[in-house]
């Protein structure tokens, strides 16, 4: 916990995927306080010729883009922590991908603890079990 799904406007590249996954895991631990030992990252790639912003292919405008979907347990982070995370992710992705289009996105989902979990146990269950 958490799960991060990131889509990059690039051809599949194992080294880039590893670099992105590592940096996102680091930022998620440092800024959101999430344990990297239970953080999962799935990286997908979309050819820039198939990624459009305002009707233009990214391949035509020479910029990269990304979409990061991060799911965390509701109530575990403040607005300031999430804002710092969004800003840091944009900075990191620009370093890793080169010039990024402003229309790149970070979506932090605050998911209820009774509706989310891993290993067959909800986050609420884990919270209560840790208190007992």
Q: Could you please describe the fold and organization of this structure?
A:
The protein has 132 residues and is α/β, with parallel strands linked by helices. The protein has four helices and eight strands; from the N terminus they run βαβββαβαβββα. It has a single domain (3-131), classed as 2-Layer Sandwich (Macrophage Migration Inhibitory Factor). 39% of the residues lie in helices and 27% in strands. β1, α1 (14-32) and β2 (40-45) form a beta-alpha-beta unit. The protein is elongated. The mean pLDDT is 96.
Short summary:
The protein contains 4 helices and 8 strands; from the N terminus they run E-H-E-E-E-H-E-H-E-E-E-H.
Total domain count: 1
The number of distinct helices, counting runs of at least 4 residues, comes to: 4
Helix content: 25-40%
- CA distance, first residue to last residue: 20 Å
Observed structural traits:
Macrophage Migration Inhibitory Factor; 4-stranded mixed β-sheet; two-stranded antiparallel ribbon; 39% helix
SSE order and pairing:
Elements: E1 3-8, H1 14-32, E2 40-45, E3 52-53, E4 56-57, H2 58-61, E5 66-73, H3 79-97, E6 105-111, E7 117-118, E8 121-122, H4 123-131
């Amino acid at each position: 916990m958490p799960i991060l799904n990131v889509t990059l406007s690039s051809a599949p590249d194992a080294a880039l995927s590893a670099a992105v996954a590592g940096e996102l895991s680091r930022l998620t631990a440092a800024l959101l306080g999430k344990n990297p030992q239970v953080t999962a990252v799935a990286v997908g790639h979309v050819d820039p010729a198939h990624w459009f912003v305002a009707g233009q292919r990214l391949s035509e405008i020479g910029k990269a883009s990304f979409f990061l979907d991060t799911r965390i347990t509701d109530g575990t982070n403040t607005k300031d922590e999430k804002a710092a995370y969004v800003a840091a992710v944009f900075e990191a992705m620009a370093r890793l991908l080169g010039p990024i289009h402003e229309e790149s996105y970070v979506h932090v989902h605050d998911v209820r603890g009774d509706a989310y979990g891993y290993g067959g146990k909800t986050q609420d269950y884990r919270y209560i079990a840790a208190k007992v």
